[in-house]
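Lay summary. Proteins are chains of building blocks that fold into shapes, and those shapes determine what they do. In this project we predict the shape from the chain. Here is one chain we studied, written as its sequence of building blocks.
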Amino acid sequence: MLKQLEWKNLFRGMLMGITELVPGVSSGTLAFILGIYDRLIDSISGFFSKNWRKHLTFLIPLGLGMVISLVAFSRIMKFLLVNHEQPTHFLFLGLIIGILPLLYRESDMGNSFKVKHYTLMFIAIIPVILLELLREPEAATIVEISNLSTFGYLFLSGWLASMAMLLPGISGSLVLVILGMYTTATTALSELNFPIIVSIGLGVIVGFILSSKIIKFLLYTFPKATFAVIIGLVIGSTYAVFPGLSNSLITNVISVITFLIGLIVVQTIGKTNKGM
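And here is the predicted shape, written in a compact code that computers can read:
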């Protein structure tokens, strides 16, 4: 079994895990950049099929990589967002904008999109912007599960966040921010608070399985419409990630550099995966 595992997915999972630590950036976006989005959806959706062993060889290293990143980089990402918020957000802004040409080519948007597809794309932009506008101050950090309702809310938060994680453009961490659970989740990860991690994690697993089946159905049944929605979500997420500009020229220059790095990284990875 160990020899059959696709260990190259360990690194891919680590990259996806890092993005989920930043509100506004989706691991689904990174999965698309890495060229594994379709297979990710197929593998999660087929987890309970007769070919479950084949899917596990893909999913185990990917999931392990995400867990490693979430635990190892939660403090680092928290430090960067607190002390270097603008350059960090501009790096991820570059990653997000860099995916748009890839989506354009993959969907054959220039040749196949009609008015209805552009309408769907525009409509899809709206909920991402609304999610950002609806941000509320974080609720008190939950450090222990005192009753069933606390577990239920943690579980539901994980469920909703996981549904967002699979869609390029909507961030699971942004959903956690909206629900007031972002600090609770990142604190639990950095301090290895397993009861909190397991409660949220169970919701994530259930959400992954159910939402993957829906996304798979839409991709196979309405591919152009689904791509239109995904492109809209990605465009909308730029609003969620854009931190604005500071009064510091040095900070703005560094932000431009990190933005360009993000663009270059996406294009490089995209070309690499195209040739594989």
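What the prediction tells us: The radius of gyration is 18 Å.
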